Amino acid sequence: MILVRVNRALESPPYNLIVHSAPCSDDHPESYHWHVELMPRLTRVAGFEWGTGFYINPTSPEEAARVLRDAKA
């Protein structure tokens, strides 16, 4: 349901699929909970992101929630 709303609200953006798995050096991988992250690619990665590994989200949570609520599933 949420992906339908994201596709409609953002006009079918491309996505980045990221799989987070246990580190190879971990002695107890059974305690690690792997997960998948699906992120719509909305902007280009620039110097700050490449240099720090942190990404800037230019949209407030309130605005994102409003856009998703307004997009009909």
Q: Describe it for me?
A:
This protein has helices at residues 2-9, 47-52, 61-70; strands spanning 15-20, 35-40. By secondary structure, the chain is α+β, with helices and mostly antiparallel strands.
- Euclidean distance between termini CA atoms: 6 Å
Shape estimate:
extended
Uncertain runs are none
Element order: H for helix, E for strand: HEEHH
Task: Going across the biggest sheet, name each strand in turn.
Answer: 1-2
Helix content: 25-40%
List the total number of helices.
3
Portion in strands: 15-25%
What number is the mean pLDDT?
Answer: 82
Mind describing the biggest β-sheet?
A: 2 strands, antiparallel
For the secondary structure, the number of strands is: 2
Rg, please? 16 Å
* Broad structural category: alpha+beta
What are its keywords?
73 residues, alpha+beta, two-stranded antiparallel sheet, 33% helix, extended
